[in-house]
């Protein structure tokens, strides 16, 4: 593949395609692969012109970032790596490649240790005998539950199947493998079982500046049912899922995927008059969230802005900042 005169390495094309097709999925996992893709692209560069290398990397970064629109962890991880190069003055392409690969390694290792820390902090919020409900498959929230389970606190976990892609089955299998008592339920049974639940633990694809949590479609309904049943709602989220774009007034775009993920193509062909919609994320307002468990601490959702200020600066919020650069279509 070629973009703007630059050849995109096939390994990078593959990673982007796998993210798009959800073979690589989960906001944290997507972010780690995004960083890895930039490192691979850097290593594959064979020229000697530094300015050209910067342009090439920016082109690859825009290409990788556009794989999926909602999980802000992807543009954030890619920007983290690329901005390292933008802020440094390596004497040659060889050193520039080193800057990029080091930054990618740093991001990946930060991300891995963030998940471990979240697991420790989140487990403190689980009490002995708690029944938990989770939605979709989030590695951060599965790790919280497994850690609490190892501490002997988890009574049972209700896992929603999470139509249409059924990622709940991945979470159910991972938890059961660890010896957690798992009950898999259809999405429509959420309210029915919520009265038995003490705590909801789910992940995030993005956290907005006002503390709204964007996560797999149906999360907001789980939160609604939890509020009614007085169950607490915890979000397990690394801070690189916090969206700097929302500080400058942008909304988190909600990805709408193929109808064929909802019904098969035969049914679609037989019922051409029916419109099938497949939005894959929704926003849970901060009022429905008890706390966001991050690697920097357990915070109320309303404090999301403080994390963003700490990470990206106070005022003025520059639209020139690498992390704020507009997304390609
Ligand atoms: P971790 C997933 O999105 C789910 O919405 C999940 O809650 C979120 O990413 C966070 O997952 P998708 O890629 O980063 O399945 O905690 O669309 O693994």
Question: Would you mind describing this structure in some detail?
Answer:
With 329 residues, the chain is of the alpha/beta class. The chain folds into 2 domains: 2-116, Up-down Bundle (Four Helix Bundle (Hemerythrin (Met), subunit A)); 124-312, Rossmann fold (3-Layer(aba) Sandwich). The protein has 11 helices and 12 strands. It has helices spanning 10-20, 27-44, 50-65, 73-86, 93-124, 139-150, 168-177, 190-194, 219-228, 265-270, 304-312, and strands at 2-3, 6-7, 130-134, 154-160, 182-185, 199-202, 206-207, 213-216, 232-236, 281-284, 291-294, 297-299. The strands form 3 sheets. A 7-stranded mixed sheet has the order 5-4-3-6-9-11-12, with helices on both faces. A hairpin with a 2-residue loop joins strand 1 and strand 2 (6-7). Helix 2 (27-44) packs parallel to helix 4 and helix 2 (27-44) packs antiparallel against helix 5 (93-124). It is globular. Bound molecules: 1,5-di-O-phosphono-alpha-D-ribofuranose. 1,5-di-O-phosphono-alpha-D-ribofuranose binds at residues 25-29, 136, 138-140, 167, 202-205, 215-216, 280. The site of 1,5-di-O-phosphono-alpha-D-ribofuranose (RI2) has 17 residues, from helix 2, helix 6 and strand 8.
């Amino acid at each position: 593949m070629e973009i703007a005169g630059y050849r995109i390495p096939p390994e990078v094309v593959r990673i982007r395609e796998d993210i798009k097709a959800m073979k690589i999925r989960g906001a944290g996992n997507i972010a780690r692969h995004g960083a890895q893709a930039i490192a691979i692209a850097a290593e594959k560069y064979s020229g000697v012109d530094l300015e050209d290398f910067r342009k090439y990397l920016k082109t690859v970064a825009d290409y990788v970032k556009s794989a999926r629109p909602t999980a802000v962890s992807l543009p954030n991880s890619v920007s983290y790596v690329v901005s390292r190069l933008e802020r440094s003055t390596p004497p040659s392409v060889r050193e520039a490649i080193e800057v990029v690969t080091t930054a990618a390694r740093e991001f990946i290792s930060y991300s891995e240790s963030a998940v471990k820390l979240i697991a420790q902090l989140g487990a403190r919020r689980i009490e002995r005998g708690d029944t938990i409900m989770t939605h979709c498959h989030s590695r951060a929230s599965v790790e919280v539950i497994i850690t609490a389970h190892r501490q002997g606190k988890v009574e049972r976990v209700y896992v929603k199947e999470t139509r249409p892609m059924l990622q709940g089955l991945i979470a159910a299998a991972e938890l059961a493998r660890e010896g957690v008592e798992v009950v898999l339920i259809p999405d429509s049974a959420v309210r029915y079982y919520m009265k038995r639940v003490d705590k909801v633990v789910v992940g995030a694809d993005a956290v907005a500046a006002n503390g709204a949590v964007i996560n797999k479609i149906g999360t907001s309904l789980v939160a609604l049912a939890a509020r009614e049943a007085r169950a607490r709602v915890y979000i397990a989220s690394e801070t690189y899922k916090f969206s700097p774009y929302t500080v400058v007034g942008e909304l988190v775009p909600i990805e709408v995927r193929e109808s064929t993920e909802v019904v098969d193509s035969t049914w679609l062909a037989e019922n051409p008059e029916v419109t099938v919609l497949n939005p894959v994320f929704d926003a849970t307002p901060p009022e429905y969230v008890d706390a966001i468990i991050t690697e920097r601490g357990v915070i109320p959702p309303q404090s999301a802005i403080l994390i963003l200020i700490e990470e990206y600066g106070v005022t003025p919020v520059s639209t020139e900042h690498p992390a704020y650069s507009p997304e390609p279509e």
